[in-house]
Amino acid sequence: MKILLADDMDIVREGIACEIKKVIPDAEIDDFSDGKYAWEAVQEKTYDLVFTDISMRVMHGPELAERIHSYAPEIPILFMTGESPLRIQEMGIQNERCILKPVTAVKIREKLNELDSLAPFQIRKPVCETEQQAEQEKTQPVRKKGWFARLFR
């Protein structure tokens, strides 16, 4: 399994890579210090999963995620952050796609198990509550089945 990991803090990135290896021991992890380099790698190589920090120096995680989703929508994207759930929501990011730091093997395993039930990826621009409710009533999310389970067959 090929995993892209983007976080601008070296020691944090190294720690997260170790935690990912605890969950997926045979994972091939390419790690990058900013979204710009990560984006360049996505255009050159195929990845099965992306972990990205939300706030990075050069290209933030949400911008990286939007680019990846436009380029290869089949790649699951998970965010890692130290931000509060309220701040995550204000940024328009689905809370269920976030792993709060510190990132641990337990949190990674839980999030990977939830991948099958997540709504399709999107960064939502903040809208008023009534517009949000109307939008939710109109859309039925397409769900992937058995994604995480297929990794271990």
Detailed description of the structure:
- The C terminus is likely disordered.
- It is globular and about 35 Å long.
- α2 runs parallel beside α3.
- It is 42% helix and 15% strand.
- A 5-stranded parallel sheet has the order 2-1-3-4-5, with helices on both faces.
- It is of the alpha/beta class and 153 residues long.
- β1, α1 and β2 form a beta-alpha-beta unit.
- The protein is built from 7 helices and 5 strands.
The overall average pLDDT, rounded, is 83
3D shape: globular
According to DSSP, the number of beta strands is 5
Quote the distance from N terminus to C terminus. Answer: 13 Å
| Low-confidence spans | 126-130, 137-145, 147-153
Give the biggest beta sheet: 5 strands, parallel
Task: Determine Rg (CA atoms, Å).
Answer: 15 Å
Secondary-structure element pattern, one letter each: EHEHEHEHEHHH
Number of helices: 7
Specify the helix fraction band.
40-55%
- Structural class of the helix and strand makeup? alpha/beta
Tell me the strand percentage band: 15-25%
- In what order do the strands lie side by side in the largest sheet? 2-1-3-4-5
Give a concise summary:
The protein is of the alpha/beta class. The protein is built from 7 helices and 5 strands, in the order E-H-E-H-E-H-E-H-E-H-H-H. The radius of gyration is 15 Å and the shape is globular.
List keywords for this structure.
153 residues, alpha/beta, five-stranded parallel sheet
Please describe the topology of this protein.
Blueprint lengths: L1 E5 L3 H14 L4 E5 L2 H10 L4 E5 L7 H11 L5 E5 L3 H6 L7 E3 L4 H10 L14 H10 L8 H4 L3
Parallel strand pairs: 1-2, 1-3, 3-4, 4-5
Helix pairs in contact: 1-5, 2-3
